[in-house]
Amino acid sequence: MEVTPELAELFGAYVGDGTMSIIRSSNGKHMLMSIAASKEERRWLDYIADLFERTFRYRPKTRWNLNVYKIQLGVGRICKFFREAGFPVGEKTLIVRAPSIIMNTIDGVVQRSFLRGYFDADGCLSFERRPYGKYGKFKRTYHYYPRIFLTSTSRDLIHTDIRKILESIGFRYSIYERMPTGNGEHKVYTATLRGPAQLNLWMGEVGSSNPVHLTKYEVWNRFGLCPPRATLNQRLAILSGKLDPKTFYGN
Questions:
Q1: For the chain, how many structural domains are there in total?
Q2: CATH number reported for the structural domain that contains residue 218 in this entry
Q3: Who contacts 251 (Cβ-Cβ below 8 Å, separation ≥6)?
């Protein structure tokens, strides 16, 4: 199969929030794939279902399950394709990598699409304020300074694959490691991009298909700030002119 931008974005989403397991029943055993998302990300998960339909001519259903939305599919040819691309059955948290067909391509659009899918599934866009130091009132009060986080417990994913793609685009970034704090936890690796220039470069070169990320960017781009506790619906109300973002800060 040709590695299209749509397939690359699916791979990215699966690396972030996908799982594959073997289900046993009276009819034998078969593989089951799923991609999960939070309640606010239902529209993004519908978009992922669209990508499956365009890529594999099969549209999985989106289901609400245990406080998350999930796409689940047990279509053998699709599960087999993902396995042959390098994704394991069972726990993948510590070993997941970008597929070699993504990392070996010379098509920058494909790699950017993979990065977008991963960011939409497992990345974070947030804004911080500067309450201390010699900053003006606006910067001390409002969350204005953007940060993008790409986090995983797979060292090779962050230190090798994500690093290579970020550098190919020209991002300025840092990678941090956080040691486990409790039993059963693992070291966490985070690639961080900071500042307006990096965010604007991201939205221009990589972008996002997830309304949660997009509305944060659009509110910040229009007002110069983005309240951290605003929900997706509240950000939509801000963008439609029905809500002032500064009301989140009281007087």
A1: 1
A2: 3.10.28.10
A3: none
Which among 105, 101, 78, 219 has a CA at the least distance from the CA of 168? Answer: 105
For residue 210, what are its two tokens? 């997830």
| AA identity, residue 117 | G
User: Predicted confidence band at 30 (pLDDT cuts at 50, 70, 90)?
Assistant: confident
Task: Name the least confident of 78-92, 111-125, 148-162.
Answer: 78-92
Which three-class secondary structure string do you get for 111-178?
A: HHHHHHHHHHHHEEEEEECCCCCCCCHHHHHCCCEEEEEEEECCHHHHHHHHHHHHHHHCCCCEEEEE
The contacts of residue 152 (CB under 8 Å, 6+ apart) are 93, 96, 122, 158, 162, 188, 189
Q: Look up the domain containing 27 and give its range.
A: 5-249
| Sheet with 28-37, side-by-side order of all strands | 18-25, 28-37, 68-73, 62-65
Q: Which whole number is the average pLDDT over 25-43?
A: 89
The more confidently predicted of residues 92 and 193 is 193
Nearest to 111, CA basis, from 170, 172, 46, 44:
170
- pLDDT for 251 equals 63
User: Model confidence at 66, in pLDDT bands (50, 70, 90)?
Assistant: confident
- Count CB neighbours of 226 within 10 A: 25
Overall pTM surpassing 0.85 (yes/no): yes
- CA–CA gap between residue 17 and residue 2 (Å, rounded): 23
Residue tagged 């800060």 (tokens): 249
